[in-house]
Design brief:
Helix content is 27%, strand content 18%. The radius of gyration is 28 Å and the shape is globular. The chain has 26 helices and 32 strands. About 1% of the residues have low confidence. By secondary structure, it is of the alpha/beta class.
Length: 794
């Protein structure tokens, strides 16, 4: 089993999936790389470098890491997370020492994504400032928002006569331009790309252009005098001829071009013949070492990072991305400063500056002051904080404008490259409160451990941090947040323990099966073995918490967007949430993500409390909703142990569109420029085109929840019937299953004993959440197993 070690200061999404984390301050990243290199150089005989100041715990862990890497020569990989060229060169040398060049580091099929060079942008700004540029074109780029030197860029643009923005909509850069040339959306356009060396991809339009726009490439060709205007589809013609010249004429393909082109369109990708690229390291490590960032002596340090949902803010006009919580800190609709939380060794959890979630602070960095709300995050190193990028755009349509805080102007460059951290940051005490702080999870830990301040022994910090022993004695409540250490919500372990106790796991699995044999309605067991009985399996070892399933479910099932204010009131509507739990060392924990949706229980506690039978059981094992029968008593939601039912407190799809309840959106610069007479987002004909016609749009006062994509089940059955065959395993793919990039979710018929679903459920690592309640859930999970080396945290 592989081992993933992450060196970082804040809990990143990648770090949350690591087996071990080594905590260093942002300015110590370079020192960590130098120390790791020196430890390897001792054995390889390479020249040693001057050590930089680094915390002793990290030094010890990195020395151990060096031994593990050497034991896996040619099978390991070291990746640099900084934008410092010197540190990147040293990491390349480390991979060279480990024999990774040509094995795990592959130059034959190198990735060509994110190829922009910030230094070229810096040169452009200098040329514009000096008056050497008469015209500038921005193609689907927004540097006035996300460029590190945005203030200088604005000044430089004022000296350029002709400024043209080719974008999907009015953005921060477009406002500064003389001309706006609206372009087709990517789904309305022809195009091609080379994401990897030798991998060529074709993009085809799925719909005709909705607006009176023109593809950006067509505009550029026309202005360059290279456009064949006699062609019906000028850019398609240009693209086709280009492929003919590049691949077919070059002898890369055989036969007629028509056949080659049709196959490329059908496949969507073309693989060119590649010669193996053999490379060797030739960098100057002495020169590289001089460019390594020197650690700061003291003070607070801040990291800036992109979240998986918002990225750099390019798509912040999409409300789904705001509605989906950040997987790590579980906040939505804005960015928040992540602050550390730790245990005092007695009975209290302590947060940075004694701040509470949602408190507002002022922080100063790189000559800028900002106000932002905070959220305490386990795994955040002391004396460090972190803030996401991608928020705070002034011109991002009716949805994305004025959401969050723009911190791009706080970034600074080093040798012309953006540095994504700052030292010497000042963070104030509490100055206010975010009254609409949108946090979707309040229980974060399952038995985190810490050293007892009196005995020095490790203890369960959750159970120790009780507000009063009265609660434990009278109500049986354990832990800081009601500890779940003895409940089957999350099963987790490490590889060593699993190997030692695999027989015990098998016995426990059989015991649980026996406990869950009883049906509520006796004498009808044979009905479950007839026809289809749908179920799902989720492997928590494969789930990274990325949230793709959440977005896919919203799109497929017309899940309404409710906005920040309603999420603050705990009225979020997403059918599938990804619960995130921390366990292990309180200051450097492991993480497990658990997608949680309706479990479609055979002994469903929601069904027998509904007074009007609005929630009932189908003949195929689905717990289904009859929307026009529901009268909104919410008894079902109250009786659901998984808390996965959602109630439409308002008419979110028509009369109570979230946009109307968001003061920040209603007072944005974008709205002031475009005028108040714009149709309300979500209720206008255009944005309602996003609704899936196969799924009912729910109204106020109705309960809704995961349906196992029943519309897709019906479609699969009908297709099989038309083709006069049995239903195949791949005929029905739920939205969450199809969107999962790691294959963590498997859906299928539990009565088909040969399918992948049943193969997974036979594993002794399989469990059902809250199995002791005997609700007979149709969703099961795989125990989270990490490969943690406890010596790293010794």
């Amino acid at each position: 089993m592989s081992r993933h070690i992450q060196v970082e200061s804040f809990m990143s999404l990648t770090g949350s999936n690591a087996d071990n984390r080594i905590l260093v301050k942002p300015s110590e990243q370079g020192a960590a790389i130098v120390h790791l290199y020196n430890e390897l150089a001792k054995i390889s005989g390479d020249q040693a470098l001057t050590e930089l100041e680094l915390n002793e715990k990290a030094k010890s862990a990195l020395s151990l890491l060096a031994k593990e890497l050497l034991a896996a020569k040619g099978k390991s990989l070291v990746v640099c997370g900084n934008n410092n060229v010197g540190e990147q060169v040293l990491v390349n040398k480390i991979n060279d020492i480990l024999g990774n060049i040509g094995t795990t580091v592959d130059f034959t099929e190198a990735s060509f994504q994110r190829q922009g060079d910030e230094r070229e942008m810096n040169d452009l700004v200098k040329e514009m400032t000096s008056g050497k540029v008469d015209a500038v074109f921005f193609l689907e780029a927004n540097p006035v928002y996300d460029y590190v030197g945005k203030a200088k860029l604005k000044e430089a643009l004022a000296k350029v006569k002709t400024k043209v923005s080719l974008g999907y909509s009015l953005d921060d850069t477009g406002v500064e331009c003389n001309y706006l040339a609206p372009v087709h959306h990517g789904l309305e356009s022809w195009g091609d790309a080379m994401p990897k060396r030798g991998h060529y991809s074709l993009m085809q339009p799925t719909i005709s252009a909705i607006f009176d726009t023109r593809q950006g490439e067509v505009s550029l060709l026309k202005w360059a005098g290279k456009l064949n205007e006699s062609a019906d589809q000028p850019y398609y013609s240009y693209l086709k001829n280009n492929w003919k010249e590049m691949f077919f004429s070059a002898g890369d393909a055989l036969g007629e071009f028509r056949g080659f082109w049709d196959k490329a369109l059908k496949d969507g990708v073309y693989y060119s013949k590649l010669a193996t690229v053999n490379v060797s390291f030739s960098g100057d490590i002495i020169e590289a070492a001089t460019k390594v960032t020197k650690p700061a002596k003291d003070g607070i340090e801040i990291s800036f990072f992109e979240t998986v949902n918002m990225g750099n803010g390019q798509y912040s006009e999409n409300p789904w991305l705001h509605e989906m919580p950040n997987p790590v800190d579980r906040t939505a609709w804005g960015n928040h400063m992540q602050i550390p939380i730790w245990f005092n060794g007695d009975k209290d959890f302590i947060t940075f500056n004694d701040l509470e979630d949602g408190d507002k602070v002022e922080f100063e960095a790189n000559g800028n002051k900002k106000e932002i709300a905070v959220v305490s995050t386990f795994g955040q190193m002391r004396e460090t904080v972190a803030v996401p990028l991608g928020y705070g755009r002034k011109f991002a349509g009716m949805v994305g404008s004025n959401v969050g805080v723009d911190v791009n102007d706080m970034l600074q460059d080093s040798d012309g490259l953006t540095q994504y951290f700052l030292t010497g940051v000042k963070v104030s005490e509490k100055i206010g409160k975010d009254d609409d702080f949108a946090h979707v999870q309040y229980h974060h830990t399952i038995g985190v451990t810490a050293k007892d301040s009196k005995t020095g022994e490790m203890k369960n910090a959750d159970e120790s941090a009780l507000p009063d022993s009265f609660w434990k004695d009278v109500f049986g409540v354990e832990g800081f947040q009601g500890a779940l250490t003895d409940r089957s919500v999350i099963f987790r372990s490490n590889l060593k323990e699993v190997k030692e106790h695999v027989e015990e796991l098998k016995e426990k699995r059989e015991e649980f099966k026996h406990l869950n044999e009883q049906q509520i309605y006796h004498g009808y067991d044979e009905l479950y073995a007839m026809g289809h009985h749908w179920g799902m399996h989720i492997d928590t070892n494969l789930c990274t918490g990325c949230g793709s399933c959440t977005i896919a479910c919203m799109a497929e099932n017309n899940v309404p967007v409710v906005g920040k204010h309603e999420i603050h009131r705990h009225h979020e509507m997403s059918w599938i949430r990804i619960d995130r739990y921390f366990y292990g060392d309180v200051e450097n924990p492991n993480t497990v993500y658990q997608p949680m949706m309706c479990q479609h229980c055979d002994n469903a506690p929601c069904e027998n409390v509904c007074p009007v039978n609005a929630t009932n059981h189908s003949s195929e094992g689905l717990n289904q909703m009859v929307y026009n029968r529901c009268i909104g008593t919410r008894y079902c939601a109250n009786n659901c142990p998984y808390k996965v039912r959602r109630f439409n407190w308002l008419d979110y799809t028509t009369a109570d569109i979230f946009y109307e309840n968001e003061p920040a959106l209603r007072s944005s610069d974008w709205l002031e420029m475009m005028g108040e007479d714009n149709e309300i987002f979500g209720s206008d004909p255009l944005t309602r085109m996003v609704l899936n016609p196969d799924v009912t749009v729910r109204s106020r006062g109705v309960i809704e929840k995961c349906s196992f994509c029943v519309q897709r089940i019906q479609e699969g059955k009908l297709n099989a019937k038309k083709e006069q065959r049995k239903l195949r395993e791949d005929d029905v793919v739920t939205a969450c299953q199809g969107a999962c990039p790691t294959g963590a979710i498997v859906f299928g018929d539990m009565n088909d004993k040969e399918n992948e679903l049943n193969k997974r459920t036979e594993s002794p690592l399989t469990y059902i959440a809250l199995e002791e309640t005997n609700v007979r859930s149709s969703v099961c999970y795989t125990m989270k197993v990490n490969n943690r080396n406890e010596e790293f945290n010794a």
